[in-house]
Amino acid sequence: MKLLFDQNLSPKLVLDFDGYFEEVRHVSDLNLDRVEDIKVLEYAKSNNFAIVTKDSDFSDIVSILGFHLKLFGSEWAIVRLRTSLFYLKRISTRSEHLAMMKSMAY
Fold this sequence. Notes:
Elements: E1 2-5, H1 12-17, E2 23-26, H2 37-46, E3 49-52, H3 56-65, E4 71-72, H4 75-88, H5 94-104
Parallel strand pairs: 1-2, 1-3, 3-4
């Protein structure tokens, strides 16, 4: 799973999650921090990223336009990701991390 953190989340989260997911980026890394949400959604869709955000606008756009992508768009979802990270850090090898993440994908 690839994660794309939205502008409303700290770029430091990339460091926390890097190495435990296939790829982890922040919109500012990709020069998407000053574009409209739809551009971020299009990038995520075409590059197979799940978006992590606190912004409810993303879920509205996804619903209206019918985008099919993973969206972690609530405090609960972000807590779930952090909990997953806690357990991932307890696993010893990177290959085990990736295997576990693939089995957790929904």
